[in-house]
Specification:
alpha/beta; Rossmann fold; 2 domains; eight-stranded mixed sheet; six-stranded antiparallel sheet; 21 helices; 20 strands; about 35% helix; about 20% strand; globular; binds S-adenosylmethionine; binds zinc ion
Length: about 625
């Protein structure tokens, strides 16, 4: 549990004067950010927030469910004037800051997670990109020899010493029949598929190499991991393609030497035990009980070396950005990173440890990320106001208590709050926060999570306190836009009740077409689906909430809705229709307490016609199905 030391931390953008990841900044003077104009927009407003996810800026540093700045910008333009103050009380990676600052608005970013405020702060305090580039070069010079030792192998064709790019690890399994252990790769992986970069590279059934009993992937038990293949660069032999080899004696010796070095090293690395949680359960079952064990030895040693060099940096503003690059790779370099023959491994909001792991060359990964971050910083450095001190504060604390902000000081709130049990932020942020040395104070985390002993009532209470606090700091008759998504009636109900109790009126509820369903949306029913935008007005006397919708009313609404939709659109999915029904209830101030996703699907089945379409995406060989609904 975190102490009080940083919960009140208010980061000012004068990065040179602050070591924000280590100490407390007490400059709480916000007067430059606040105006006393009472003007406000009359009309609600909603557009899709999904634009701009394929930009270097957006992808420079990951976070769980990011809303792209390009999507937020139209809201800022509609609801505020230049110089106005925008607040995001659940800011995550601080995308609202980018939208606001690049439009000359002032902004306060707040989040409970210290990883979130680390990311939000660094995204929004760009330094001169030349300084960062120079620093990365200098860092490379510092670590070059060490990294050369870590990532060297012999080319199987020409025998020259070459640089290792990736190392593919496979699980060791124990045969339930003969008790022998074996490297799963050998009997289970289809090497041609790996070479052709295709999916379906693991056999459904294979024989135990010792006793030849037929096994499936789940039969033999986990007994650790071992290197299976090494990808390295040898331009004379393979051109731009990587060479792929089985580890030889020297490769195995190197890994042993690395492990010995790690055992004796004086370099610091985090050894924090994972908390008992939802996402941590699977890694803990595999024996990965702490953050250090989440990395293979070589990756951990390389990360520890980098972190050590970064911590020695003298200029704080530069050191912070080098740390920012570091945290941007700190998850994808763990054993959570799956090996997939076609490349990347996605970045799902889980800590799931896969059977096959691709260990990346840490310097290759770091320097690539540094390039992206330099590009992102260049873009912002040019757009941002020069006197950033008068425009930005980043605060690490709970939205339930924003005492650092005076009453009636904020012109507009744009925020994407946690949605019930969808994502366990404090668990997902644990690796980052262990390196940063500051953990989220989970007691105030707004979430439904039985491991934290929190049910929907606890979530509702935290949301109500947050909305009450937002109401206090937001000027009268001013707006708050919420990005929200959930398929559970009880969570919608918690949102509806807590908004009303705090003194907000839901003025508009909007959903948007998503052209292409993402793999996550289609494959896992519990996954986050379509975003909905809820416009809330801060009023004196919010109206009462009426009875819940009857099945008849729901059917009538859907009968009206479907003919208005395009023939193929994901608004015709059960999920899209669900959002529409919830919106219908909220817009009409009717209770949403009976609107569960499962219940709606049953209603659809009784009254409407389903057609199933097949899509081939996003990877070769992966066909996904999508069910759309029509009036019979
Ligand atoms: C949906 S995310 C925001 C993501 C953000 N829109 C982005 O683009 O990165 C919700 C955030 O709420 C934070 N959170 C949870 N409980 C909180 C609380 N009581 N006060 C402030 N933030 C909280 C989580 O740490 C998480 O970062
Ligand atoms: Zn070669
Ligand atoms: Zn066997």
């Amino acid at each position: 549990m975190a102490g009080d030391s940083y919960q009140d931390t208010l980061f000012t953008p004068s990065a040179d004067a602050s070591r924000h990841t280590r100490s407390v900044i007490t400059s709480t003077d916000l007067s430059a950010l606040i105006n006393d104009s009472a003007d406000s927009r009359q009309e609600p407003y909603a557009v899709d927030v999904d634009a701009g996810k394929n930009t270097t800026l957006y992808q420079a540093h990951s976070y769980w469910t990011k809303v792209p700045p390009q999507g937020i910008r139209p809201y800022i333009d509609h609801f505020t004037d230049p110089g106005d103050l925008v607040l995001d009380p659940f800011c995550g990676s601080g995308m609202t800051g980018i939208a606001a600052l690049s439009e000359s608005r002032r902004v306060v970013l707040n989040d409970l997670g210290s990883a979130a405020t680390h990311i939000a702060y660094n995204y929004n305090t760009p330094i001169d990109p030349d300084r960062l580039e120079l620093a990365v070069d200098k860092l490379e010079a510092e670590v070059a020899d060490f990294f050369e030792w870590l990532y060297t192998t012999e080319c199987t064709d020409c025998g020259e010493t070459r640089e290792i790019k990736n190392t593919i690890w496979s699980e060791i399994r124990e045969c339930p029949h003969c008790g022998e252990t074996f490297n799963l790769w050998e009997p289970a992986v289809i090497d041609e598929k790996v070479e052709e970069r295709k999916n379906g590279f693991v056999r459904d059934e294979f024989d135990c190499p010792a006793c030849e009993t037929s096994l499936t992937k789940t039969d033999p038990e986990y007994r650790g991991i071992e290197v299976s293949r090494i990808e390295y660069k040898c331009t004379p032999c393979f051109g731009r393609k990587y060479g792929l080899k089985e580890p030889d004696e020297a490769d195995r010796q190197l890994l042993e030497d690395v492990s010995d070095t790690l055992e004796e090293t004086e370099l610091w690395y985090p050894t924090d035990d994972f908390p008992d949680g939802y996402n941590t359960r699977q890694p803990i079952q595999k024996g990965l009980t702490s953050v250090d064990k989440f990395y293979v030895d070589r990756a951990l040693l390389a990360m520890a070396k980098l972190w050590d060099e970064i911590q020695r940096w003298e200029e704080d503003a530069v050191r912070e950005k080098l740390e920012f690059v570091f945290t941007a790779i700190a998850n994808r370099t763990t054993r959570k990173h799956a090996f997939r023959p076609w490349g990347g491994a996605g970045n799902s909001a889980t800590l799931f440890v896969p059977t096959f792991h691709r260990e990346q060359n840490i310097w290759v990964t770091y320097s690539r990320k540094a390039n992206d971050i330099v590009k992102a910083q260049t873009e912002l450095y040019e757009q941002y106001p020069e006197d950033l001190d008068n425009y930005l504060r980043v605060h690490n604390g709970s939205a339930t208590d924003m005492g650092f902000l005076p009453d009636n000081s904020v012109d507009y709130v744009f925020t994407d709050p946690p949605f019930g049990a969808n994502i366990n932020y404090s668990e997902m942020n644990f690796v980052w926060e262990s390196w940063l040395g500051r953990k989220t104070d989970v007691e105030l985390e707004a979430i439904v999570n039985s491991k934290q002993d929190k049910d929907v009532a606890d979530y509702e209470l935290l949301m109500r306190e947050s909305f009450a606090e937002i109401k206090r700091v937001l000027k009268d008759d001013h707006w708050m836009t919420l990005v929200f998504n959930n398929s559970k009636a009880e969570v919608w109900n918690a949102l509806q009740q807590s908004l009303r109790d705090a003194g907000f009126v839901i003025a508009q509820f909007a959903t948007f077409d998503k052209q292409q369903p993402t793999l996550q949306q289609i494959t896992s029913e519990g996954a986050v689906g379509q975003d909905v935008m809820v416009a809330c007005l801060n009023v004196d006397d919010p109206t009462e909430i009426g009875e819940s919708l009857t099945e008849d009313e729901i059917v009538r609404h859907v009968r009206q809705l479907l003919p208005e939709l395009a023939e193929k659109t994901d608004r015709r999915t059960a999920r899209g229709i669900y959002s529409s029904v919830v919106g219908f209830a909220l817009n009409n101030r009717r209770s949403v307490d009976n609107l569960d996703f499962e219940t709606l699907v049953e209603t659809l089945e009784r009254h409407f016609e389903a057609k199933t379409l097949e899509y081939e995406r996003p990877y070769k060989d992966v066909v996904v199905e999508q069910t759309l609904w029509y009036v019979e």
